[in-house]
Design brief:
The protein is mainly β. The chain has one helix at residues 166-175, and strands spanning 9-16, 19-27, 36-42, 48-53, 61-66, 73-74, 85-86, 95-96, 109-116, 119-126, 131-137, 144-145. A 4-stranded antiparallel β-sheet has the order 3-4-5-6, with no helix packed on it. Strands 9-10-11-12 form a 4-stranded antiparallel β-sheet, with no helix packed on it. A two-stranded antiparallel ribbon has the order 1-2. It is globular. The chain starts with 8 loop residues before the first strand and ends in a 6-residue tail after the last helix.
Length: 181
């Protein structure tokens, strides 16, 4: 999608044998003026959920639902907060917790969670502040802001945190001293 040109297109593609063939472009309904960074996921009930950034300055995100990827229903725009969704089973159904866990007044995007021992770390882009931030919790109820403990390259934005074995980390760090290709 190209927000500067006002593009709102859903492109369907088929990936087979490492090749991708675009086989259809379908206009999406104008649910928002800007649709940037769209993400679509299908829920266990078969409903497709689409979220996107709806402006450069907005405190909300766009949200729409579809049963068939053709007809979309715009939903109220949620705030750009981090909220927990809980379920008794991994397959759901999920219940959204009422209160956000990020610091009050912060606008956030791109969260990534990492479990280290009995502690869950949640990293995210606090984009209105122009920085990356982190929270941690041992019970998923009480969250501590540990942003001051982060040591990240300047300008770090959306990312994914994931564990690697010590040997892999050592090779990565050793490789930092080699000239770039």
């Amino acid at each position: 999608m190209n927000p500067s040109a006002g593009s709102r297109r859903l492109t369907t593609a088929l990936a087979r044998d490492h090749g991708i063939k675009v086989n259809r472009k379908r206009d999406l309904p104008q649910v928002m003026k800007i649709m940037r960074d769209p993400c679509i996921a299908q829920g266990p009930d078969g409903t497709f959920h689409m979220v996107w950034t709806n402006s450069w300055e907005s405190q909300t995100i766009g949200y729409a639902l579809s049963k068939d990827l053709i007809t979309w229903n715009k939903e109220p725009s949620p705030m750009k907060n981090l909220r927990l969704a809980v379920a008794d089973r991994i397959s759901g159904p999920y219940r959204l917790q009422a209160d956000p866990i990020n610091p009050p007044g912060s606008w956030v995007e791109g969260p990534s969670a990492l479990q280290v021992g009995d502690t869950t770390y949640l990293y995210f882009d606090a984009y209105a502040k122009g920085s990356y931030a982190a929270l941690r919790s041992r019970d998923m109820k009480t969250w501590e802001d540990v942003t001051a403990q982060l040591d990240l390259p300047k300008g770090t934005r959306h990312g994914t945190a994931f564990p690697v074995k010590a040997g892999i980390l050592k090779r990565l760090l050793d490789n930092d001293n080699k000239p770039a290709c």
